[in-house]
């Protein structure tokens, strides 16, 4: 599957089969994350690989919807605190690096037939406690990784005429 096809096929999957994710596929996903561009090549991100088996009730405290823990794996994207690049005018770019890493993960997972969903609306304090994270990591987002049991919803997007500004 080429990038264009992966972009077209990706959608936020909010329902997963319990089927395991093959180790080789997880490895490909992690290697795609490793290749993500980062500001000044700082690579200040860290990826939490979190198997859900046997700990769904605990992990669900982080984000309540049932589908959050249906897939066999959750990935958490973090930036090492104070290691993300800051522009001279003070603009912080660590979150941008994290988003690019997540996009590499999500598009690669899609190309391998796997479903994902960005999750930013989680409880940070609970996540830090459950995952025993210390204060050196800034947890940005999660995604489940697994096989979808739901179909894509209808896509709603603004027209390019609204989204693009030619100057
Ligand atoms: C930064 C970010 C955070 C998001 N957080 C959540 C979330 O917490 N829960 C959720 O169900 N979807 C979340 N989403 C998914 C969006 O709702 C979804 O991408 C959007 O509605 C478009 O739908 P699509 O992904 O199926 O194309 C998030 C997406 C992004 C980019």
Task: Pick out its properties.
167 residues, alpha+beta, binds flavin mononucleotide, 3-stranded antiparallel beta sheet
Characterization of this structure:
The chain is an alpha+beta fold. It has one domain: NADH Oxidase. Helices cover 32% and strands 14% of the residues. Strands 1-2-3 form a three-stranded antiparallel beta sheet, covered by helices on one side. The longest helix is centred in the middle third of the chain and has 18 residues. Flavin mononucleotide binds next to loops.
Write the layout of secondary structure elements.
Elements: H1 3-9, H2 23-34, E1 45-51, H3 56-60, E2 73-80, H4 94-111, H5 124-130, E3 137-145, H6 160-163
Antiparallel strand pairs: 1-2, 2-3
Helix pairs in contact: 1-4, 2-4
The protein binds flavin mononucleotide (FMN).
Rounded to an integer in angstroms, the radius of gyration calculated over CA atoms is 17 Å
Can you count the beta strands? 3
Query: What value does the average pLDDT take?
Result: 97
N/C terminus separation: 34 Å
Helix coverage percent:
25-40%
CATH fold description: NADH Oxidase
Number of helices: 6
SS class: alpha+beta
Low-confidence stretches: none
Bound molecules: flavin mononucleotide
Which architecture per CATH? 3-Layer(aba) Sandwich
Summarize the main sheet.
Answer: 3 strands, antiparallel
Strand content: 5-15%
How do the strands line up in the largest sheet?
1-2-3
CATH superfamily: NADH Oxidase
Order of helices and strands: HHEHEHHEH
Main CATH class: Alpha Beta
Instruction: Describe the global form.
Output: globular
Number of domains: 1
